[in-house]
């Protein structure tokens, strides 16, 4: 089942097109990894996939329906976002923040029910942040906040997840745990699109990789054919080594300093 499709999508801000010609589709159980240099348009594209920015032209389809015609709550039942930066303005606790992920399932003027509390508690448990549940979000480290935002997206229970650099603030342990969580979501049949500045993650996890260069998809396909040393060198403008590690089966990707 195709959960996300873009057709001739151009995206950007009022008066400024950042990218164009984007043709993507994502099926249930698929992981797509988006690689691209700073400013290439990853966050802007993601905001457009969520309907937070209108398409400049072309279309975004969620489960076959044009996002421009879907109500906000309906979009949130179909797709969840883990934002790159979330400003913690009001000091909600982590438990409250994660429970907010349930909002699209709770009718207006109603309060969360036992199923909502259970989903939030499960998400907190899966992310290993039970010890932070009572802590205000304004008093978290960057990595702790990132884990809380992933938990909120899990609690939302959408079949499609969009994760904007979900491991950028995480230590090695939490990076691996988040990648394992993404694998588990894939095994459940969810579709995941994530951006990262670590191409090794694309090799470790993605069914397909898209290289975003100046707002255009320069290449799209399996990591071993798309995230090659030559392609990454072109993309980032520096020397890159890609090496399959004997024994572990994983692939190391290193810039040449
Ligand atoms: N609110 C905005 N209005 C106008 N232009 C913007 C706005 N936010 C970002 N841009 C511009 O849009 C382009 C794409 O930015 P975007 O944040 O999508 O890049 P990115 O690939 O996510 O980068 P990074 O890897 O640094 O997070 C950049 O040139 C940026 O300066």
TrEMBL record:
SMART domains for this protein: AAA (SM00382)
InterPro entries: AAA+_ATPase, ABC_transporter-like_ATP-bd, ABC_transporter-like_CS, P-loop_NTPase
PROSITE patterns reported in the protein's UniProt record: ABC_TRANSPORTER_1, ABC_TRANSPORTER_2
Any GO molecular function: ATP binding
Pfam families, sorted: ABC_tran (PF00005)
Keywords carried by this UniProt record: ATP-binding, Nucleotide-binding, Translocase, Transport
Keyword Translocase assigned: yes
Residue ranges of domain ABC transporter in the record: 4-239
Superkingdom of origin: Bacteria
Physiological role: Part of the ABC transporter complex HmuTUV involved in hemin import. Responsible for energy coupling to the transport system.
Full protein name: ABC transporter ATP-binding protein
Native organism: Rhodocista pekingensis
């Amino acid at each position: 089942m195709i959960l996300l499709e873009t057709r001739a999508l151009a995206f950007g801000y009022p008066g400024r097109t950042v990218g164009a010609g984007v043709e993507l589709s994502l099926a249930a159980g698929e992981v797509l990894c988006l690689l691209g240099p700073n400013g290439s348009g990853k966050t802007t594209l993601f905001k457009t996939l969520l309907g937070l920015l209108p398409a400049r032209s072309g279309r975004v389809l969620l489960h076959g329906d044009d996002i421009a015609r879907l109500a906000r709550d309906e979009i949130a039942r179909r797709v969840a976002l883990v934002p790159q930066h979330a400003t913690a303005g009001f000091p909600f606790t982590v438990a409250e923040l994660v429970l907010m992920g349930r909002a699209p399932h709770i009718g207006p003027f109603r309060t969360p029910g036992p199923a909502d509390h259970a989903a939030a508690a499960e998400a907190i448990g899966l992310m290993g942040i039970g010890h932070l549940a009572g802590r205000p979000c304004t008093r978290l480290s960057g990595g702790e906040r990132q884990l809380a935002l992933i938990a909120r997206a899990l609690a939302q229970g959408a079949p499609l997840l969009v994760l904007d650099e979900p491991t950028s603030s995480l230590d090695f342990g939490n990076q691996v745990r988040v990648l394992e969580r993404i694998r588990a979501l894939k095994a459940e049949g969810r579709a995941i699109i994530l951006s990262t500045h670590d191409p090794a993650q694309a090799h470790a996890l993605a069914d397909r990789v898209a290289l975003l260069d100046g707002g255009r998809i320069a290449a799209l396909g399996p990591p071993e054919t798309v995230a090659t040393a030559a392609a990454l060198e072109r993309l980032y403008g520096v020397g890159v080594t890609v090496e399959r590690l004997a024994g572990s089966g994983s692939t190391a990707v290193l810039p040449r300093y």
